[in-house]
Design goal:
2 domains; globular; 6-stranded parallel sheet; 16 strands; Rossmann fold; 318 residues; homodimer; alpha/beta; Quinone Oxidoreductase, Chain A, domain 1; 7-stranded mixed sheet
Chain lengths: 318, 318
């Protein structure tokens, strides 16, 4: 099979042996696979795949068709349309994955959209709902709201009945984010401006890290929760624990990729129960900024790295 | 009535008008009242009492007898032995407090012990159980384990079936803390020593603040929770969010005093259900380092500030 492949820090397309499904696993013919920040880190050598996953094939999410089943795999018939997360190897024509870690592909998404669905919606749902426990009527702040996880978070927050404030750097993306359900779209500088009054936030979803910490703490409501799921802007910074105490607040930090099967399976069940119905009735969708055929994988990575896009960059494997 | 009173940063004993219970409140004849770190802060002008509480009478916990009831107060009969937390004013002969914020004084504690019970056990239980969700078999680290909240936390952790590691600076207090149920008592320096291998902790109870943050993060288990309920050692310090992400960890920070009645009442109900039975069957107790009559309140504060004690300093109001 062919796959996007990391060679000396670059993305090429290369041949690999077809994977063989193990106990409880299915073999998936991948139709589409989204790109994520972790793929860029892995490409540059800074985020190796967990053990048991191909080290040189990136890709944390995929959509495709079940074309084989390993021993004891019984949740999906051959031909079933599925989508899911994997610890790596999503961006190849074939993939093996444990059947409990994936979900049916929801009606209402085409292959490309389904390929960019699982990682970002699982990440956003786990952070906002499972961890931070967002409730209707709460105020949710999402940094980097135009990206993959950001657009998922905006839509989930809106569907839950929260008030969603989206922070977006590029002015040309503000209208698109508002159309996804953000009650207001602001520039990051506005939140940092001490003279600008903002009603405090109950939940903050942050992918930037240390540079946002002071603003997040200053803008936190009593009982507020900050969920850090990325440190693209830097990991180390000053924290004022007195401010966190005064807010009776929490900082939660998390990654999805390193979790054991049982936690990933539990997250997949929550997606089935709580998110797929929203997709199926059209309440949320997967905005795709651009898709690229597998042969243009390197161009897809360049586009992803350039930023300034609304939603996902997805490899279309046909 | 007479009360310990803050005058120009010093503790004196002064006359005050008798308080009158409002709707839902009881009037308590205080028999004993513990000292806490917040009293020292308030004495030095750095922690004013919340609105509705006397600003010049310190005291966050008390035990006494109900001697009057305001309109609609019906939980306790006159003569009932009660203990509880208050936003301030605990260290006077009379006190008014909402009846839902207090609990029966448990059998098995004398007045002095009961006077030093509520604030520290409510604080420790709220932090370790309600917030951090400590489970049997988990590893609990308690910094400053010889103090009031520390000795409460050690005993609660032991009673829950956790493995309790107590960090205590004074060697002469190690045996006393071990006798309360700590599986091991260590010096703070040992935890800070990078060459010393320690199995990581699921829950860390911290009253020191910023100086402990790096050690707490380095020693945190996957899914671990750090609960910060004091910043006596400093509030501002560097945090490594990448380390927190890798641990999929949480930093929770909290204070009890500023919470609204409904939250304090809910905490009191949890104490009734989960902690009073442990006291009544002798599984936990209140270690009292020293008690002082009201006239010696200033000496009690000096003793509290000096540290190096096992358990509580309590005012004995007779």
């Amino acid at each position: 099979m062919r796959a996007a492949t990391i060679r000396d820090g670059e993305i090429v397309v290369a041949e690999h042996p077809d994977p063989v499904p193990g106990v409880g696993e299915v073999l998936v013919r991948v139709h589409a696979a989204g790109l994520n920040g972790a793929d860029l880190l892995q490409k540059s050598g800074r985020y190796p795949a967990p053990p048991g996953h191909p080290q040189d094939i990136p890709g944390l999410e995929f959509a495709g068709e079940v074309v084989g089943r390993g021993p004891a795999a019984e949740r999906f018939a051959e031909g079933a349309r599925v989508t899911g997360i994997t610890g790596g190897g999503g961006q190849g024509e074939l993939l093996t994955v444990h059947e409990r870690q994936i979900t049916p592909a929801p009606d209402g998404l085409d292959w490309v959209q389904a390929g960019g669905f699982s990682e970002v919606f699982t990440t956003a749902h786990d952070a906002i709902v499972t961890q931070a426990g967002l409730r209707p009527g709460e105020r949710l702040l999402i940094h980097g709201a135009a990206g993959g996880v950001g657009t998922a978070g905006v839509q989930l927050g809106h569907a839950i009945g929260a008030h969603v404030t989206a922070s977006v750097r590029s002015r040309e993306l503000h209208d698109g984010v508002a159309a996804l359900g953000a009650h207001e779209v602001v520039f990051p500088d506005l939140l940092a401006d001490r003279d600008h009054e903002v009603e405090p936030f109950d939940v903050v979803l942050d992918l930037v890290g240390a540079p946002n910490l002071a603003v997040n703490l200053r803008r936190l409501a009593i009982g507020g929760r900050i969920v850090v799921i990325g440190v693209g802007g830097g990991a180390k910074g000053e924290i004022n624990l007195h401010a966190l105490m005064s807010a009776r607040g929490r900082i939660m930090a998390s990654t999805l990729r390193a979790r054991p099967l049982e936690e990933k399976a539990a997250a997949a069940r929550r997606i089935e129960r709580e998110v797929l119905p929203l997709v199926e009735r059209g309440a949320i969708t997967v905005p795709v900024a651009a898709s690229y055929p597998l042969d243009d994988a390197a161009a897809a990575y360049d586009r992803f790295a350039a930023g300034g896009k609304l939603g996902k960059i997805v490899l279309d494997l046909g």
